[in-house]
Queue: 4 jobs
Job 1
Amino acid sequence: MIDHLIPKTLHEALSAMERVHFIKVAGGTDLMVQRRMGPMVEPRFESPVIFLYHLKELNYVKEEDHQLIIGSMTPMEDLLHHPSIPNHFKKVLNDIASPGIRQMATLAGNLANASPAADTLVYLYASRAEILLASLHHERIVPIRDFITGVKKTVLKDNELIKEIHVPLCPCTTFTWTKVGGRKSDAISKVSFVGMAEMSDHHLKKIGIALGAVAPMVISDHAMEDDLQGLSIKELSMRKDAIIKHYASQINPIDDQRSNKTYRRKVAINLLTQFLDELLLKGMTS
Ligand SMILES: Cc1cc2nc3c(=O)[nH]c(=O)nc-3n(C[C@H](O)[C@H](O)[C@H](O)COP(=O)(O)OP(=O)(O)OC[C@H]3O[C@@H](n4cnc5c(N)ncnc54)[C@H](O)[C@@H]3O)c2cc1C
């Protein structure tokens, strides 16, 4: 039998994590696939396992100061039906896996798995989400760009877990989400894209751009986004080619069984171009 702990409370979980190096299990939809050993054989875990999914203390959605506060064990399917979750985030969630998987899958698992093809990451990077990490005696907030440090790598310490995900609410006037997969549902992304922007008075108030599955980490550049804020439509139009060139220089996809790098690169650049064109068109007519 797998050495495991099913804590009754968050405090019990955090206390145990001070003493033992556990593998944390949320919904298990990534872990159980990664650790499977074949039919009728239990999955292999090199360390004891701690189950967190049932902890009600980590299952909530709140709205505070123009941001969503999402408890780390809230299943994606609950988010999809929650009145506080904006429709554009729901579009992303609706394209993930299937309802059955979404009943178990969590944002925390999607984040901590740190795959460049994880679908919520593009939304969370473009929104500038922050992650609240908790250990028994300490909590810290880490911006998403600092949380993931490489493929399957994060700054999580052994005694920490993801407690909350904080997602700023964007009053977007333009939002694009595209997932390119091998089929319409239950597909792993070949390329994913989120573009969000707030325009008013023919000026860009806010912009968020993120590209997934086309580099070892999600491509997102908050410094570039800050630089674009405040531009008029005319100025943005003049910068369009430079923006595309800037992001294109970071696109560095791989060939794998799902797709090849030439296709991924072309599609990613097309999606960015379409988003900027839509933004410019709306800005001229609004
Ligand atoms: C059939 C199928 C289809 C899928 N389709 C998609 C898809 O379309 N898009 C997509 O992005 N993903 C997809 N996935 C992958 C998976 O469902 C998601 O990545 C999901 O969000 C993982 O969440 P989980 O709660 O199941 O994580 P788990 O498997 O429990 O954990 C994943 C990782 O996160 C860590 N972890 C979990 N919770 C915490 C926490 N609170 N604190 C610290 N570390 C934590 C675990 O230790 C582990 O390393 C699919 C998986 C399957 C099996």
Job 2
Amino acid sequence: MRKRILLYGLIFLVSCAMLPGVRKVPLTGRSQLNLIDEQEINALSFKEYQKVLSESKVVTGGPQAAMVQKVGLRIQRAVETYFREQNNSDYLTNYRWEFNLIEDSKTANAWCMPGGKVAFYTGILPITADEAGLAVVMGHEIAHAIANHGNERMSQTLAMQKISGGIAGVISNDPEKASQIFMGALGIGVLLPFSRSNESEADYMGLMFMSMAGYNPEHAPLFWERMLKYTNGGGTPQFLSTHPSHETRIANLKKWLPEARTYYRPGGS
Ligand SMILES: [Zn+2]
């Protein structure tokens, strides 16, 4: 009996490993389903990103935009160094990082589209407060992109809506619908925010990434304390979904601090 269970277990494991689109998330090792070809989702992402930028007021000069650029680049480089050291630089081949600041003081938000297209809104800067605070949010957003949460979410959406033929079919038949599924899957502007587990995973990975880049990870719970105060003061945090609760996030981040310190490189890589 026991042998049989073991055999079935083995068959199950082998078939899981052979499923197309099953990938492992870096750092956490979680298995995820990415049904959409990376270059395909990036093509859609880069187009949508340009669309958002063209419809927004992008801040092109000044210290705030420069800081968004600086922090983004610093964490990007640290992530690249980490993957190189893991002999896994190929993982990053299709990323085209970009870090833009959008003038909108009423929006306390930031997001990252697949392939590394990051946007911050000026409304979140009073809460990030300083460079290290900004690195908390930047690490989190970069983590969403590295963990392919957009692809995972979109794969789920396609499966739920029973859309066959994949996203390529939707793009050619109904580009508007492809755009809606994409923005919805990312939780940008509407509908479906990332799941609680994806948010926690981005918190965890983001904490490690900011540490690799030489930012003290202790700033992460401090940022969330400020976010908590902002929300309690009646502010609407468009940044991320409302779950997990800020309290859970803070507790988790504090729990992960010892591990984050092992990645910490003062001065960055
Ligand atoms: Zn998030």
Job 3
Amino acid sequence: MSFVREVALDSDLVALLALQERDQAVAALEAELNSFDPELAQLDANLARAESELAGARKGVEEAGNRRVELEGKIEGYRLMQERRRQRLEWVKGAKEAATLMAELDLARSVLAKEEAEWMRSADKVEEAEKRAAEVERALEEARTAQAPRREQIAALRAECTERLNAARQEREETAKRVKKPILTRYDRIRKGNTPLAMYPLKGSACGHCYTAVPIHRRQEIQGGRGVTSCEGCGVLVYDPGT
Ligand SMILES: [Zn+2]
């Protein structure tokens, strides 16, 4: 069947149809290669979510640590002031002054006790934040480990697909060499447009893509597979597939 057809068709048309077949093979492989993208994007998104959670947890550790250091500084300052009050107490002479200092010492002691309690809580918060960060980090590691086999599988499938795609592109280039330059230029230009293919067979007396009628003199030109004509409706190359 295909032998009969090749004999019937003009050699330019045969070369063009072969080229179109190669282009379809390339397009199918490109689609196959791209078909992994959504899954890869999903895997990436899952990791990104865990990573941003980890960044948040680490920030929590840092903030809790800063708070603890801040309280330590404050407590250190209070202690120093208390120490000075105690020293002054040893030297005061008047009873009134001593009573005032004693009252100050008492007050400062209770403030210090509150700050120390606050420091204890801040130390607990650091510990909690560190625990949380460690958990999130472990979850991220687990997610990476869980993804690894599928990622490897996809990488292998893509590598194999890329190999086939490169071979198909090579074949396409070889096949393109058999098409005469002006017609190849036309063909390539149509392919860059928005029709799925550059060439369509006649369907009855109309273009096989947009179904615009092909004028009779044009149909006669290509009758029996003698080359191609442009569709006036959509611009694709129309050919007579013969019978
Ligand atoms: Zn058309």
Job 4
Amino acid sequence: MPSPNPQWKPGDTVEAPPGKTIELDPTKIPAKEIYKLIIGSIVPRPIAFVSTISAGGVTNLAPFSFFNGVSSNPPCVMISISNKEDGSKKDTLRNIEETKQFVVNSANEWLAEPLVHTAASFPYGVDEMSVVGLTAEPSLKVKPPRVKESAFQMECELYKTVEIGDGSAGSTTVIFGKILFMHAHESVYKDGRILFSEYKAIGRLGGFSYGRVTETFDIPVPRVGSDGPSGG
Ligand SMILES: Cc1cc2nc3c(=O)[nH]c(=O)nc-3n(C[C@H](O)[C@H](O)[C@H](O)COP(=O)(O)O)c2cc1C
């Protein structure tokens, strides 16, 4: 698959989209509208399908798309969990604060419907994994179980939390997790790499929309000066 403009060379002009720019000052826009701008513009977002367990031993499962990998040494991920409308904490956050552990299960296409179902506001103490009919597979290093049907799972321990906001609705706790162990299904793994075509990741877009990546292209980062190979 050729890149969007294989003839491009440094210094070539790139056209800006036609028309005028609309200025948007977040101090003058309600938080709900800002949320729509953020989730519509930062796309597609990877989705962490997060399993946790309460101190009392009840499993919880929910999706989070303010999620990413943040470092490889130590291997770390982040998920961002916002407070509920009434300012209270989501079950996932309560459990991570209690046990300091969680599992990030991959969001693959075949999991789309049950994954979205687990985002409903089930009361604290409801095990969404059994509600949607997914299988709890014991983890090796942490107490929360993994989702057997997901293609890749990362067992994590809490590394650090960062509070954003004043605790009111929309305020957020960013969870950084250190990956203690990873599990890849053999159908998506070869020679230390994840097979993108088999992995079938889904991403969250704006509104209720999701996307699958059906077309990719390669552009190697050029070597400049004495730089070694770069992967970004
Ligand atoms: C695809 C998807 C992505 C979501 N991403 C987030 C997110 O990044 N942060 C968040 O606080 N809630 C997010 N939500 C909403 C939570 O999943 C929802 O509030 C859920 O009920 C939380 O469950 P819990 O109380 O069991 O932790 C997302 C929902 C969906 C469907």
